[in-house]
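Section 5: illustrative case.
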């Protein structure tokens, strides 16, 4: 007499054993991660991956993420798998560069934004494979029950999206020194208050669209005028496209000038579409201060000797100190009777003997 098989056992590969158990494999899926960081700063995240279902031809052993298969990086703009450079990074022009590193079944992600990139980047997708050979590049057929993880590619790949926020700017004062009467120049600079991934502050420069402007010393207000004059000191002019300031001192001015303040309102960056949003515009001021060193004139007396009644000649000299521009424009006799310069080309000293000394004054 035949016995009924009450409990099916084992797995049918062929034949007519009717246990009615069908093995269904479930492909793996990743997760969505997003981060936010300051301009220029590195951002990091860890994207987890989950294997699902059973290992092929097993009723008990779960599938696993295959750690022997390297994760793949996908450019979200093209949907194509990309190969990082020798340094391990994949660069997206105008946004930044990405690096992925396996971390067990997860993947560590780095994003280093370009110095002047702001806003939300396109990000990357990450694909992993499980022990059944299935990867995360599949799409759900029942989105109402299980939505796609990667909403960019509409797959179950891991998705990473970074956002970069703007930082404030600060001005860097500039000074210059030159001799009396010489024209001087200086260009105050501007940069972010925070540093990028290399530990460097990010330069922010004026332009024709976002010009540098002078602050009028008389009012303390920003002016659209490209030059201002400080009485008793000199005139300051600005190249508004570069922020370069030119100082022309008054002829008689020496010492450290009051200086002039330069104001800049300019974008610290743009988004991936090249748009400058209102929140990207930042303002800072910096001061330019020139110092004028006085010109000194060093005279050298001269003497001469000859016999009685013979005319004598000699030329006293005058040397200027460390000067590049000034020159002696005239010399005048000093009248011994008055002690004052005279326009006369000769002076007579009553009762003088054979040798006569005449003082010259340089002008």
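Designed sequence:
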């Amino acid at each position: 007499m035949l016995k009924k098989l009450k409990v099916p056992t084992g797995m049918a590969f062929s034949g007519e054993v009717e246990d009615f158990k069908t093995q269904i494999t479930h492909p793996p899926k990743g997760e969505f991660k997003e981060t936010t960081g300051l301009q220029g700063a590195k951002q990091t995240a860890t994207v987890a991956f989950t294997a699902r279902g059973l290992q092929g031809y097993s009723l008990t052993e779960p599938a696993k993420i295959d750690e022997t298969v390297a994760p793949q990086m996908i450019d979200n703009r093209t949907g194509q798998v990309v190969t990082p450079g020798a340094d391990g990074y994949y660069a997206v022009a105008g946004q930044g560069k990405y690096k992925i590193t396996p971390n067990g079944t997860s993947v560590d992600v780095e994003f280093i934004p370009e110095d002047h990139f702001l806003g939300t980047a396109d990000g990357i997708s990450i694909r992993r494979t499980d022990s059944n050979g299935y990867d995360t590049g599949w799409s759900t057929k029942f989105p109402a029950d299980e939505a796609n993880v990667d909403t960019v590619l509409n797959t179950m790949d891991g998705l990473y999206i970074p956002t970069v926020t703007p930082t404030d700017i600060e001005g860097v004062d500039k000074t210059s020194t030159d001799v009396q009467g010489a024209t001087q120049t200086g260009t105050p600079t501007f940069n972010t208050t925070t540093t990028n991934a290399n530990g460097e502050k990010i330069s922010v420069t004026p332009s024709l669209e976002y010009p540098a402007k002078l602050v009028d010393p008389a009012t303390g207000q920003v002016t659209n005028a490209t030059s201002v004059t400080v009485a008793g000191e000199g005139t300051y002019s600005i190249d508004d496209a570069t922020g370069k300031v030119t100082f022309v001192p008054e002829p008689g001015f020496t010492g450290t000038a009051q200086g002039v303040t330069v104001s800049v309102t300019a974008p610290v960056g743009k988004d991936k579409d090249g748009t400058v949003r209102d929140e990207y515009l930042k303002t800072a001021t910096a001061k330019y201060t020139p110092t004028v060193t006085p010109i000194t004139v060093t005279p050298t007396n001269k003497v001469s000797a000859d016999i009685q009644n013979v005319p004598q000649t000699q030329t006293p000299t005058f040397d200027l100190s460390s000067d590049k521009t000034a020159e002696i424009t005239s010399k005048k006799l000093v009248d011994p009777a008055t002690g004052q310069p005279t326009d006369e080309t000769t002076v007579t000293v009553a009762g003088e003997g054979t040798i006569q000394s005449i003082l010259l004054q340089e002008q």
